[in-house]
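Homework help board

Subject: predicted structure for assignment chain

Our instructor gave us this sequence and asked us to write out the predicted structure in token form, then describe one feature. I got the tokens but I'm not sure how to describe them. Can anyone check?
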Amino acid sequence: MKWRKSPQELIDLFASVMPGPPATGRKMFGYPAGFVNGNMFMGLFQDEMILRLSEDDRQELMKARGAKIFEPMPGRPMKEYVSIPQPVMKDRKDLAAWVAKSFKYGASLKPKSKAKKSARARTKTRST
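My token output:
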């Protein structure tokens, strides 16, 4: 399965609603993504914007027309992530409110530790 690039318009929308520090942006599988304390809380995948939300917020957003659990591959749902429906993405104020909820949830998660030492660093440590 070949993945498509996100359209520039979606990338621009993502950048416009991405919170500032302590949120950081980087690529995840070649797509823009937002992280807080090492946890991804928002991102793009092809032509979708996805947000990681608490159970209550997920249920609330799922009531919106077109919202669905994010499934990057058929049969592989990512249960905490919701694909944002078009009506929400077209309403900048509504989208910003959902991004804020996603950021808050991401910030509440246990921080991820710094990246593990590379194999090269581990090998070097063992040989000394």
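Reply (TA_rk): Your tokens look well-formed. For the description, you could write something like this. The CA atoms of residues 70 and 76 lie 9 Å apart. That's the kind of observation they're looking for.
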